[in-house]
């Protein structure tokens, strides 16, 4: 997918809030090896690095546009690399991922793979958006199933792999994890109107639609804008953004 850092950062403060809650779940240790999966522009990875003195932190992202923003932040203990979650290898004290793993299918296979790369005593800490059932998201998916968009999309639709919190807790338990913490939180986004919600979603859930729709994208975007405005005429409004956070330690 082609990411636009400028579009994504339009709501930088709001998007960062779950990161700090996830960071609170991390055991602060010195001199550990850390990977941040889906590091984006690197700003939050730098904060993660600062919280873990003397540690070697690697930020990985598959977007060159994001990495162009991140690389100037690199230093002796912080580096950024192009790569995907699926390509990850090695052994780590902390595997950290904030708002990235919802793009990776089959979490039933993904979590055991990540767990196998964590050293004894190490941690897995993950935050994923779980807003896929919100009206503003369902409207995107439903619109994509109508013509002319469905044909252009080859009848593809975005399906979130994110599970409920009980599911993540059970998977971590079966992996033998200890100090398991799983929660779902709603972060309030106070928006001027529904157009602001469109701008928010343009930077995230709508990215693959823009890429796949090509010349139909402007028409799709405007149709979504009008449908959302009709369904959600409030001004201002509160866009509650649901997030799933989980962390666990390997014995």
Automatic annotation (TrEMBL):
Segments forming domain Methyltransferase: 34-122
Protein's name according to its UniProt entry: Methyltransferase domain-containing protein
Domain of life: Bacteria
GO MF annotation terms: trans-aconitate 2-methyltransferase activity
CDD domains referenced in this protein's UniProt entry, alphabetically: AdoMet_MTases
Transmembrane parts of this sequence: none
GO biological process: methylation
The keyword Transferase is annotated on this UniProt entry: yes
A Pfam entry, by short name: Methyltransf_25
